[in-house]
Structures are given as structure tokens and as C-alpha cells.
Amino acid sequence: MFEKLIGRVRNRRLQAIAEKVGSDLAVDESDALYMLTTSDILELGLIAHALRTKLHGDTTYYGVNMNLNYTNVCELRCPLCAFSRSEGDADAYTLTLEGIEERVRGAVLSGIDEVHIVGGLNPGLKIGYFEEMLARIKSVKPDIFIVAFTAVEYDYFARVNNLSIEEVFARMKNAGLGALPGGGAEIFDPAIRNQIAPRKISGKRWLEIMKIAHGLGLKTNATLLYNHLERPEDIVHHLSHLRSLQDETGGFKTFVPLCYHDSGMGISSKRAQPTGLDEIRLFSASRIFLHNIPHLKALWMYLGEKMAQVLLHFGVDDLGGTYNNEKVVHAAGASTPDAGSEQHIKRLIESSGLKPVRSVASYGVIRAS
Fold first, then answer.
1. Local structure of 166: helix, strand or coil
2. E strand or H helix at 254, and its extent?
3. In this structure, are residues 355 and 369 in contact, taking their beta carbons and an 8 Å threshold?
4. What is the residue-averaged pLDDT of the chain?
5. Residue 266 within any structural domain of the chain
């Protein structure tokens, strides 16, 4: 396959990258920077799609799940976040455990397989709240898959409860935790991070927490927040740190680029929304550079359905899920619906000539079409 591919790539630099990919060699950081800036996106896409096909064939994963944003009260109040509120604000909220159980019960009746949980750093919530949250969700549907809490949240749980990160993970696993989302990574460059999320844990600490999770057998996502203040070089730096940790632990299952939405935020990106070419370059380069992370996800809710569908031919093998009642990106101005139907997501995949497979975040197959 790759020999035929190399013959179709005329750009010499991309041809050299294709040869590395075909020989199972990691591309270097200068290759990544070139891919993020090249105008030859169709040839770049040939390489990314060939690698995607090698890893997953024509399979494209999707999930039937719900979002659970348990509180918007957060002591960080990051400039990049339109979702967070201070205690006492008119629209601040914290869900009760009874309310959470009721929401999950209703979603289970509609057929979900998974719950995705993230929230603010609320000083009024202690470790018992989160343990009981997960236990109650499992009591509703014992085989439901729980993806819960970012590295930022775990660091906070440990600090406010005087526990080690290892103890927090052990207690959450006992309560029903299945995997971790990748939120909070943002961008690892310290100078930029200090502008967009000055009180959030450092990129170094985010990586440390993910390493601990991996060592305890917890698989995780990894993310990148782009289209704010970063340069292509900052993206390469970020991807390089992820790849290095993956070489060490093998614990990242999915990479998820997240486009920054600045409506209502405390900072402005001072740039237009990325073009389709920008998205294609980023996702294709990510698929090629992060050769050791098996899955690449394009969240239709962030990107829009059409762009997410296009990216299925530029390295992406996971279109995300139904995400009933998503709040974080919509608070920032996303214009997409806050939920999707399984039938519609399947049609997006099938009309792209690919095979939809319903799964959970562990990539355990629920149903293949």
C-alpha cells in the first residue's frame, strides 16, 4: 500500500515523510512543522489516510453517550473558559447526587452506553461526592462505561482531600471509573498557558498525572487546544511531549484536537476561525506524527458535521458521540446542536464510504453496522 502511495506523492518533502511512514519510522519535529504549513494538503491527506487505513481499515467509531457537567463553579476562572462561574453567581449551579442519578437514569432509558463527566473545581465538593456519583451511575446500569474527570480535576481532588494522586485514582476505580478524558492539556508552552489559563496546573503536571494514571492501568485521551495564541511551533512542541510519554507508557488511546471558541471568553484569539485547510493540516499532521497513539478523534460538535466528515479521509477514525446536553463548548459559542442522534452520526460515516462501529471509550465494540 505504502509503495503505491509514495508513487502518488510528488512533493519531495512529503514523499520523504511517506517513506518514513511506510517503513514504520517516526517522523521528526521538522517534518511535523512542514506538515502544519504545507499547501499540498491532498498529498498530505494521502499519507494520513493510508496510516488510518493501516490501523483501522474502513472502521469509524462513534458512541452513544451523555455529557455530565456536574458543576460550573470553579475557583480557577480561566480566561479561556466561558463555562465557569463563581459561587454566588446567579447562574452558578452544582448538581445534587439525586439529580445526577435521575439524569443518568433517563439517558439510560434512551439507550446510552457511556457517561462523560467533567466539571469545575468547586471547593464545596469533597471526595465522597465523586465516589458516590460514580457508584450511583453504576447502580443505574452496571455495564455503563464511565469516562470521568480531567487531570486538572484529579490534581484538585488530591490537594483538597489531602490524598495522593494514586489514592484518588484507586478510589475512583473502585467506584466505577473506566477511563480519563484528555481535557486540561490546552497547550504545553508555559508562556501561552500563563495567558490563557494562568491558575491551571502546568503542562508538566498534566503529563505527570497522566503518567500515573497509565501506570495504574487507566487509559486516557490526550487533547490540544488550538486557534488561540499558539504558533505551529507550539503545536509541534505539544505533540512531541505527548508522543514521548506515549513511548514510555502506551496509555494514550486517543488524540483529540479541540478548536478554541472565544465567544464570551476573557481573552480573544485575534484570529478568524480556522479554515478547512487549517483543520486538514492539523489533523493529518497529528495522525502522522502521533503514530503511536492508535486513535484520532474529530468531535463533530466542535468542528461542525461537514468538517468532521471530511476529516474521516484525513486520518480520523472516531467521530465522537451523541453527547446529550453538552455545556462547555456551547457556553463558549459553539453553534452546533448540544446533542446528536445515533442515526445521523451513522449516516455521516456511511455517506463517507466508511463503516460505522458503535463503541465506548475503551473501543470495546457495542455494535457494528
1. helix
2. strand 252-259
3. yes
4. 91
5. yes
Per-residue pLDDT band for 325 (boundaries 50, 70, 90) equals low
Report the CATH number at residue 161: 3.20.20.70
Q: What confidence category does residue 7 fall into, taking pLDDT thresholds of 50, 70 and 90?
A: confident
3-state secondary structure of 190: helix
Asked if the structure places residue 325 within a domain, the reply is yes
Confirm if 2 and 17 have CB atoms less than 8 A apart: no
Structural domain includes residue 194: yes
Helix H or strand E encompassing 66:
strand 65-68
Q: Quick one: angle between helices 165-175 and 127-140, nearest 10?
A: 20
Closest CA to 197 of 186, 206, 207: 186
Q: Which residues span the domain enclosing 81? A: 59-361
55-84, pLDDT tens digit by residue? 999 999 999 999 999 999 999 888 888 888
Name the domain count of the chain. Answer: 1
In a domain, 53, yes or no: no
The pTM assigned to this predicted structure is: 0.93
Predicted pLDDT of residue 67? 94
CA–CA distance, 165 with 172 (Å, rounded to integer): 11
Task: Answer whether residue 173 shows pLDDT above 80.
Answer: yes
Give pLDDT tens digits for 331-341: 444 444 545 78
| Measured distance CA(67)–CA(326) in Å, rounded | 5
Question: What is the residue whose three cell numbers read 460550573?
Answer: 72
- 344: helix, coil or strand? helix
C-alpha cell at 291: 503514530
Between strands 252-259 and 220-226, the pairing is parallel
Position of cell 446528536? 340
